[in-house]
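User: My advisor, Dr. K., asked me to get a structural model of this assembly before our group meeting. I'm new to this, so sorry if the format is off. These are the inputs:
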Amino acid sequence: MANQLLEVKGIAVSYGDIRALWDVSLTVEEGAIVALLGANGAGKTTLLKTVSGLIRAQKGEILLEGRSTGHLSPQQIVDRGIVHAPEGRRLFSTLTVMENLRLGAYIRRARPLFGQSLDRVFTLFPVLKDRREQKAGSLSGGEQQMLAIGRALMSQPKLLMLDEPSLGLSPILVRRIFELIKTLNDQKMTILLVEQNVNQALKVAQQAYVLKTGRIVMSGPAADLLANEEVRHAYIGEHGGHT
Amino acid sequence: MSEYAIIAQLAINSILFGSMYGIAAIGLSLIFGTMRIVFLAQGTVIIFFAYIAYWLLTLAGIDPYLSLFIVVPFAALLGIGFYYSIFKEAAALEDRNVSLLIAVGLMFLMENMMMVFWKPDPRAVVTPYTSWVFSPFGTSIQFTRLIALVLAVLATLVVWLFLKRTRIGTAVRAASEDMVSTTLMGINPNMVNAVAFALGIGMAGAAGIGVATVYSFDPMFGFAFSLKALIALALGGIGNVWGALLGGIILGFIESFATYYVGSGWTDAISFGVFLLVLSFMPQGLFGSKVSKA
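Assistant: The format is fine. Below is the predicted structure of the whole assembly, which you can bring to the meeting.
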């Protein structure tokens, strides 16, 4: 059995009086793609924010390579090797493509590897090389998503967390983004993928978890979930009109 | 004096007066960028440094322009001190009002401390060159005002280069756009805020020297100065240091021409009228490229 890269054990998270996650556990094996599915408001983004240290869990623990990250700041968590590409991309739109990538490699550990990281990003996304002096805000939606993923990769992560990378993209670009996720995974990148595009996500992932109103209601091999009527009914139907 | 000569003189005055509003506005812009508050104490801090220059001259005999090399680094350190001592906890809160109230509290505290130390009567820095005047083409330019303009342009250039060329400067610009995303890059928000304060209060140090050599000042002069800086900032647009400097100079034009053609009693009313018009109809300022919509 492969190594457990990330283990989330029974975490509970509240925003004030409102409980967002209840006793959530999840495991990401090294080298895997794990899909985290669920409707809007199910708690997917909250879970990613908790793992990246933006929010603190009231209960439970989070382990990276067996060591707890619960007490660490977001900076220390990036330094330990977890990077979070947030929903909506959140690029620095008035900064150039290069400046965005430089900031991606801000942490001390990533700085000496800058040239190597940049080569990897430009090989994966040649269009970013052509656009490197352009403002990020002037890129097309697809290019912006590539930059968001590229910027995350600049920190040389062990675990890449992608929150809705296909959001707002045309069907052709959605397919390209999923191909890229597959390519990255072939290059040994471990990925925790939050998606509303259930069908595509289950096709690239090995494992999947389904969140519903803050609880894990289903988990297992992605292929099993893909075949499961209940999942398809509950989530794929809902997803249909998603743009 | 011919009409042209008067207009030329007014234009010169505008640029010379306005540049001081401009560097005050840059300070506001930098702190607003990452902290998302209008640092209302900026003008008061500027006056505080004017007093420091006054003290350095009267007590230690240090020329105000020489004291730049003491005051500006001290100001930058004080900015970092302000952030870590009183703003850090509030900066982590979603509600920006707490930080704003701290800035207001700091302003009143400093005003009252200055009243104790330096008394409410106006002070002026007098040097041999205070009375120097150039007279090109029938106009008159005071030496100290000209140096203040040069100082403003140089300070703006230094800040601009810092923001553009350094890693930390780039992080400050990124944080001005999106602090959460910046945090996810592994950048410490406290570090970025502290740097913004160092730059903003450092600018106040430079502005303080400029003010000290040009105006007579008293402890309560600062708040009015903050308001002028706020108008300059609205004109120039947030997030653009050259725009803020230019905003200050435009305010200088509005004030000089309003005073001459309408009457000095109307000057501030006209300035604030323009302030409201710009904010209402061009919230991005005259030079701002964009304002993110809520």
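One thing worth pointing out at the meeting: Chain B touches chain A at residues 167, 170-171, 173-174, 177-178, 180-188, 239, 289-290 (CB under 8 Å).

User: Perfect, thanks a lot.
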